[in-house]
């Protein structure tokens, strides 16, 4: 399982890095173009927007994986260790179920885009390509959170599973 975590994390990190670089370069080029060259290049804004979407969706899983998402800990901090572990397991199940629903319905969105043949206005790429961020990100969320859930089920904890594994590497 450690290899799966490592591979998924590397894929996510690469996609996040690539999306960030493309977004920054596209935004910078658009600003330079708008203020200096004044050319009609609409695809720079579009590529920045699509990169932002990919980045936000993949960063969601990275935040879930690292436990850096915003959460309300007022209640769970007052619970005993068993109750806290149960809350974490329930939380993982909710995340997995929600992601599974989003993953399932994202394919109908992509299928609709493929059937309609719609293309983006600036880049002229099929719209199913930007929408592919949905099944990709939710699929990775399901895999990583499921593995975390299985590990937390056997250990009784899920807070530091990945952090402990990364610290041992």
From TrEMBL:
Q: Where is this protein localized, as stated in its record?
A: Cell inner membrane
How does this protein lie in the membrane? Answer: Multi-pass membrane protein
What GO biological process terms are annotated to this protein in UniProt? C4-dicarboxylate transport
Main localization, broad class:
membrane
Query: Keywords on this record?
Result: Cell inner membrane, Cell membrane, Membrane, Transmembrane, Transmembrane helix, Transport
Can you name one GO molecular function term for this protein? transmembrane transporter activity
Q: Name one GO cellular component term.
A: plasma membrane
Domain of life the protein comes from: Bacteria
Entry-linked InterPro entries = DctQ, TRAP_DctQ
Which residues are listed as membrane-spanning? Answer: 12-32, 85-107, 127-154
Task: Please state which protein family the record places this protein in.
Answer: Belongs to the TRAP transporter small permease family.
Which PANTHER family has this protein been placed in? 2,3-DIKETO-L-GULONATE TRAP TRANSPORTER SMALL PERMEASE PROTEIN YIAM
- This protein is called TRAP-type C4-dicarboxylate transport system permease small subunit
